[in-house]
Specification:
It is found in: Cytoplasm, Cytoskeleton, Cilium axoneme. This protein is of the alpha+beta class and about 375 residues long. It is about 35% helix and about 25% strand.
């Protein structure tokens, strides 16, 4: 049974208003899952195929939607699973510094292309106090104050990355500290492409799993950073789970920025079914695909973007840019639109964007104020 991974997961049952615990078994050979109700000692989900799941999705702290239930992976279910996964998978922090936030699409694309799994992401503006905590190890260095000035000079994007040997892997992709050295020694690294010098060097990486955990805690811990949504002359774009898991998020953001829009806030979410239903409520009874749309939006992490940059015209211009809801039609009529390029069908159409200009603020608030709380 060495192909069976065993976890303890929790699910918040909204009807009973209590947290239920299950044993979650994942069989890697045939992509099947099985769940066992720990308290009532009975099978909860018979072993069945679940092809959307990948090994890299399974880690402690993950939120995964299985049949519309959002499961939180709280522990390993046995020693063998613990040994197997904790020796291979590692978490790290990647942070895009203020000088390279305008390149967020390109950097995310490099991250996805290199095989990382992204489990959390937020665009934030660090306060001086948090920046000092973040760089506490450099407190005695002569460049400490300058570094804090730099890191608080604009927005940053923090990401939790998971992968084999993730700490070392991300530091290699980031490249040498000095961007000039990076350009001569590691020309394909992030710092070679987007850094300027020793300090203004595009990205940060945790230097050990322990420090990465501390730094991640500053962004995603019990007192998480706030997102940077302006909620003014904006519209809402959601990179759907299928597009995130296919690794298209970076390319989609590049296309959005190249078209002259600004990504003024960004945050990754794991949608609960009730939230997805509420968000898509206007389509209920109107669009035949409503139920499938809800199902898709809860099938994995999505990335919400606040789009600005075209003043009051932002919602209308962005909707034009995204293209018709059906990618088949989009490919026919407007082949350069986002949905023509990244959509598969009406459900898996790459991105959601606000349809009516008057709903744009409400939808942006739904993600960046209500869900973000
Ligand atoms: N001599 C310096 N002058 C100015 N800034 C510096 C200098 N050395 C390092 N820094 C800044 O401090 C950050 C942390 O320095 P460190 O030596 O830990 O580099 P690193 O581990 O490659 O980078 P990071 O920790 O950001 O991933 C650097 O990324 C850079 O922004």
């Amino acid at each position: 049974m060495d192909d069976r991974l065993n976890f303890i997961v929790e699910w918040y049952d909204p009807h009973a208003a209590l947290i239920r615990r299950y044993q979650f078994l994942y069989y890697t050979k045939d992509n099947t899952v099985e769940m066992y109700d720990i308290k009532n000692r009975r099978i909860f989900l018979k072993r069945s195929k679940y092809d959307q799941l990948e090994l890299s999705d399974l880690h402690i702290g993950a939120n995964i939607n299985i049949h519309s239930r959002q499961l939180k992976f709280v522990d390993y279910g046995d020693e063998a699973t613990k040994k197997k996964l904790s020796s291979t998978l590692e978490k790290t922090i990647a942070m895009i510094k203020p000088d390279a936030v305008s390149k967020v699409g390109h950097i995310m694309d490099m991250i996805f292309s290199d095989g990382f799994h992204m489990s959390k992401a937020i665009m934030a503006q660090l306060s001086r106090t948090d920046a000092q905590r973040f760089y506490a190890v450099h407190q005695q260095k002569p460049f400490f104050n300058e570094l804090v000035d730099f890191i608080t000079s604009g927005k940053v994007v923090a990401m939790e990355l998971i992968g084999n040997d993730a700490v070392k892997h991300w530091r290699t992709l980031a490249g040498p500290t000095d961007s000039a050295v990076a350009r001569s020694e590691a020309p394909n690294s992030v710092r070679a492409r987007f850094g300027t010098d020793k300090q203004t060097n595009a990205v940060h990486g945790g230097d050990s799993p322990e420090n990465a955990a501390k730094e991640l805690n500053i962004f995603f811990g019990p007192q998480p950073q706030k997102n940077t949504a302006k909620l003014l002359d904006c519209t809402c774009c959601v990179i759907k789970p299928h597009a995130v898991s296919a690794g298209h998020a970076g390319k989609i953001i590049i296309a959005i920025q190249d078209a002259g829009f600004e990504v003024s806030a960004l945050q990754m979410f794991n949608m609960e079914r009730a939230n997805a239903e509420e968000f898509f409520e206007v389509y209920k009874g109107v669009v035949a695909e409503y139920t499938d749309m809800v199902q898709e939006l809860t099938s994995g992490p999505c990335i919400a973007l606040e789009i600005t940059g075209k003043g009051k015209q932002t919602p209308d211009e962005f909707r034009e840019f995204v293209g018709p809801a059906d990618p088949e039609i989009a490919r026919h009529l407007r082949p350069r639109t986002l949905r023509a390029v990244y959509g598969q069908d009406k459900i898996h159409n790459g991105v959601h964007c606000t349809d009516l200009a008057e709903d744009a603020l409400l939808e942006t608030e739904y993600f960046f104020r209500i869900l973000a709380q």
